[in-house]
């Protein structure tokens, strides 16, 4: 749980931190679209280059960025294993046999390896840029950006600011609950509990003493947060003003042009390069 990076904010003065939060959210959506439009490694290379630019101009340490990948390491390995073992493609991408091993429904082929690498790269790029959104945007700015982007829903009498607050609070307490889980697990270990030994079933049963106090802590945090909001006169259904007004600047124009260039490059590579390699 301590490797969860989504929801954490890294405070530093950088180009990416100063970009309008609305454009950051739109950039993430466009990036996801570009990743799924890419059908070859050349398109993913364009997305990886843009991600590298974002990391460099955000001044977030690369080790903190890689923590996002560490948090989904099991999912990456599981995805790779499924595609390698169940892909029966006999396409040849390099010198050697098309099929390395086959037994009943399982097989290891060149096509399976290539597709597995492609999907793993796509997953890593997606998760890494998603974590960069919260690394470079405060929960308050993220809430304001979501509320502004969802403004058309106000015409349908949907409480947009309530939805934005719920999303922001959820993001804010992901690292808090992760840290709380680690503290409770350490406390249980100090009392002799064995949480890391035995098979999967035994580990799940051993984790029950951690879940009960974790739920109690979550309810206590929610209750304290509710009282804090009421003491500051927060009331649902009232018109609220903003202390900081959001404005688009020249930085946002550059980011918008980068997004457009990335999507255009991925589409052109998809059209003119047929294969995955």
Question: What attributes does this structure have?
Answer:
mainly alpha, 2 strands, 277 residues, single chain
Provide structural commentary.
Helix 2 (41-58) runs antiparallel to helix 10. The chain has ten helices and two strands, in the order ααααββαααααα. The chain has a two-stranded antiparallel ribbon. With 277 residues, the protein is mainly alpha-helical. The protein has helices at residues 21-37, 41-58, 62-71, 73-86, 110-135, 139-149, 160-190, 200-206, 208-231, 250-272, and strands spanning 99-103, 106-109. It has one domain (21-235, 248-272).
Structural class: mainly alpha
Terminal-residue CA separation:
36 Å
Helix content: 55-70%
Number of domains: 1
Number of strands: 2
Regions with pLDDT < 50 over 5+ consecutive residues?
A: none
Sheet with most strands: strand arrangement: 1-2
| Radius of gyration (Å) | 23 Å
Count the DSSP helices: 10
What sequence of helices (H) and strands (E) makes up the elements?
Answer: HHHHEEHHHHHH
Main beta sheet strand tally, sense and closure: 2 strands, antiparallel
Mean pLDDT: 84
Shape: flat
Taken as a percent bin, the fraction of beta residues is: under 5%
Summarize the structure.
By secondary structure, the protein is mainly alpha-helical. 65% of the residues lie in helices and 3% in strands. It has helices at residues 21-37, 41-58, 62-71, 73-86, 110-135, 139-149, 160-190, 200-206, 208-231, 250-272; strands spanning 99-103, 106-109.
């Amino acid at each position: 749980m301590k490797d969860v990076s989504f929801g954490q904010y890294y405070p530093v003065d950088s180009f990416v931190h100063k970009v309008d939060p609305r454009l950051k959210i739109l950039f993430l959506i466009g990036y996801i679209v570009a990743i799924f439009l890419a059908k070859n490694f050349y398109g993913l290379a364009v997305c990886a280059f843009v991600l590298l630019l974002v990391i460099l101009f955000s001044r977030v340490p690369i080790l903190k960025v890689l923590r996002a990948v560490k948090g989904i390491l099991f999912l990456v390995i599981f995805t790779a294993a499924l595609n390698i073992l169940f892909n029966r493609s006999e396409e040849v991408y390099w010198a050697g046999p098309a099929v390395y091993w086959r037994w009943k429904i399982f097989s290891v082929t060149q096509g399976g390896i290539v597709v597995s690498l492609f999907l793993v790269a796509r997953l890593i790029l997606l998760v890494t840029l998603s974590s960069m959104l919260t690394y470079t945007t405060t929960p308050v700015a993220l809430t304001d950006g979501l509320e502004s982007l969802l403004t058309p829903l106000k015409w349908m009498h949907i409480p947009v600011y309530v939805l934005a607050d719920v999303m922001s609070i959820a993001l804010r307490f992901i690292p808090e609950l992760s840290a709380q889980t680690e503290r409770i697990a350490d406390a249980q270990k100090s009392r002799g509990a064995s949480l890391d030994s035995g098979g999967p079933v035994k580990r799940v049963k051993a984790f029950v003493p951690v879940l009960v106090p974790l739920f109690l802590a979550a309810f206590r945090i929610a209750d304290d947060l509710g009282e804090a909001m009421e003491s500051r006169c927060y009331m649902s259904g009232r018109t609220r003003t903003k202390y900081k007004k959001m404005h688009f600047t020249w930085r946002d124009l550059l980011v918008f042009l980068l997004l457009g260039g990335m999507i255009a490059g991925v589409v052109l590579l998809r059209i003119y390069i047929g294969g995955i390699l």
